[in-house]
Design a protein that fits this description.
This protein has 247 residues and is of the alpha+beta class. 40% of the residues lie in helices and 11% in strands. A hairpin with a 2-residue loop joins strand 2 (20-22) and strand 3.
């Protein structure tokens, strides 16, 4: 893959990227393009490692056996330059960012030997994005700014009881819309995590939704409307129920 730049007549460096120009053409190093938009390598890691029907859904032993494959995916993903990412379409960007987050979390879990698989990132943990070393907090805030569909935030791996059930395959451009709908619908209709209390006229929600409340509000106007839509209970609007979040 190459990007033609007619105005360049000499070598031009691109800060923070894996690009260089020679004459009129700019070449990406082949390593950058080891990342397929099908994310096959990550899906190979996840097969049998994530089993949504099991508790816990993460098989740490199998994940450990596939660490080299996981590292291969991370090396390719983290070598993507910002200039290349900017050329992705919207679905490719969402799939890339969510898959990168999930691969980084799996690497963190296997590195720390957490058998329960419940470890989440600490805000100060270091991750790499576009060849830049940043904190996890910076990465998460970047996701919240750049991902327009809040359902994608529910696709971020989390192995605690309060979280959506993790999916057992990488997100792809082709299946993104259907996969995000499936993840959010399953999560929002799981009464062990989100439910309407008729006696109290109150919607009780997972703290995950509070964490991403600002992202949800940009798209749906608030977590209340998001609940109405995803649980297909628009009639509750007339009751004007309260909202509360579980601990």
């Amino acid at each position: 893959m190459r990007l033609l730049l007619r105005s360049l007549a000499c070598l031009v460096p691109f800060a923070g990227s894996q690009l260089w120009a020679s004459g009129r053409e700019v070449y990406y190093p082949p390593s950058v393009f080891q990342l397929s938009h099908q994310h096959e390598t990550l899906s190979q890691v996840l097969i049998g490692v994530i089993s949504p029907q099991k508790s816990p859904p993460l098989d740490l032993e199998k994940l450990s056996q596939r660490r080299s494959l996981l590292k291969s995916y991370l090396d390719a993903s983290q070598s993507v330059a910002r200039t290349e990412y900017d050329d992705f379409n919207e679905r490719q960007k969402i799939a890339y960012l969510v898959n990168l987050h999930n691969a980084l979390l799996l690497e963190s879990i296997v590195k720390n030997g957490n058998a329960s698989g419940t470890r989440s990132f600490n805000d100060a943990d270091r991750v790499r994005l576009f060849s830049d070393d940043i904190t996890y907090l910076q990465f998460r805030l970047y996701l919240e700014r750049k991902i327009a569909d809040p359902r994608a935030m529910l696709a971020l791996f989390c192995f605690e009881p309060k979280c959506p059930t993790p999916h057992s395959a990488a997100l792809t451009e082709k299946d993104l819309v259907d996969t995000l709908a499936e993840i959010s619908d399953q999560f929002m209709n799981d009464r062990t995590k989100n439910f309407y209390d008729n006696k109290k006229n109150e919607i009780v929600l997972s703290p995950v939704l509070k964490k991403y409340e600002s992202v949800i509000s940009r798209r749906y106007g608030g977590v209340r409307d998001f609940y109405f839509r995803t649980t297909k209970q628009p009639h509750l609007r007339t009751k004007n129920p309260k909202i509360s979040f579980r601990d």
